[in-house]
Amino acid sequence: MTTKHITIYALMIALTVALSLTVLIPVPATNGFVTLCEAGIYTTASLFGPLGGLTVGAASGLLIDLISGYPQWAIFSFLIHGLQGLISGYFAKKSTTSWLIGLVLGTFVMVIGYLFAGWFLYGWPSGIASIPGNMIQNIVGIGLAIPLTSAIQRLQLNKKISK
């Protein structure tokens, strides 16, 4: 990993955290919240592959929880969003179909991960209650990440950065 990559990942983490804290919708049934962090994670994973997705997913998930006052979720978010970014980034560079499969698998990892995390922290009803909000969060995140990724690729910014 080069200094340029570290700088880009730090910028993407900061942008993802800022976007997520701008749109923070509390969900009392799960003692958690819904954000737009998937947009940043999926965009980074799509442009920079598994390492970028892992780095931005793990760090932004952790920081969002700590800053927004939900520290009990921080370690789970670190692991879940990191794995989500890693998986979606792994599939991103292969083909359009593979990229979409990666986004769906990333969604699956996130929804199931928070199902078990909620179950562990607050009991199974909380885990089950997290599913609809997490599905919506991922659908919106994918809906934002696809055109954003496409625009950045058309401008070839990711190629200029990767050099």
From TrEMBL:
Pfam families: ECF-ribofla_trS (PF07155). The chain crosses the membrane at residues 6-27, 39-64, 70-92, 99-122, 134-152. InterPro entries: ECF_substrate-spec-like. Keywords: Membrane, Transmembrane, Transmembrane helix. Gene3D superfamilies: 1.10.1760.20. It comes from the Bacteria. PANTHER family: UPF0397 PROTEIN BC_2624-RELATED (PTHR37815), UPF0397 PROTEIN SPR0429 (PTHR37815:SF3). This is ECF transporter S component.
